[in-house]
Amino acid sequence: xxxxxxxxxxxDALRYMRVRTAIPDEEDPDDPAFAQLxxxxxxxxxVILQRLISGAEPLEVRVALAEQLPYTRGDWHxxxxxxxxxxxxxxxxxxLVEKMRYAEAPHAAIGLRSGLEDESPSVRAAAARTAGFQxxxxxxxxxxxxxxxxxxxxxxRAAIAHSLGALGLVSAFPALTEALGDRDRRVRLASxxxxxxxxxxxxxxxxxxxxxxxxxxxxxxxxxRRILKQARAAEVAGADPxxxxxxxxxx
Length: 251
Hints:
The structure is a single chain. Helix content is about 65%, strand content about 0%. It has 16 helices and no strands. It has helices at about 1-10, 15-20, 30-40, 45-55, 60-70, 75-85, 90-100, 105-115, 120-130, 140-150, 155-165, 175-180, 185-200, 200-205, 205-215, 220-240.
């Protein structure tokens, strides 16, 4: 990073200074001029990271800088992952966690792991949601399932349940089954939906799912009944005894 910044400063001092001092329009959080300036040279990534590390600028500027990192197309992945653990502002950490969606492996997984361990529920929930869009999050399956069963924030637990399905992690089925007993109905529903996505027949065969179809909150009960119905329909379709097209009728 230091080499890139030094060459940027040497080769294009004017642009370097503009990137070093750029701030977004207060009236327009999506300020196109700000975004265009920061995305004009991959070496801008190093300058942005230095600005974030300094911690000297207003919070709203630091959040805007973090959000621009992927668009620099520079070498930002490792630095951003490290900052998720170190930055003092949860809003900045949340922005960095959300950008792990675009980070390279293994830095994305490292950043998401730090996000799941964050003291702020909003950061943990962001990590839980982002994991579903980042294939390398499968590397932290153990941390995801531990948070599914142990995090104090229902939004984080529910988001993890959805992300495990998006990642196709069939190996998370036992943890999802345990989460069917979660104290929050939204986590129970998310877990049930993900289990059906991963393995419909196995889900329908569970006693826990049959119990949910008979009682509990309305949304989860309806989802459990729908899963049982879909599984029965799939079984009937798979056991269809009708002869194949063109076969001679039985005498």
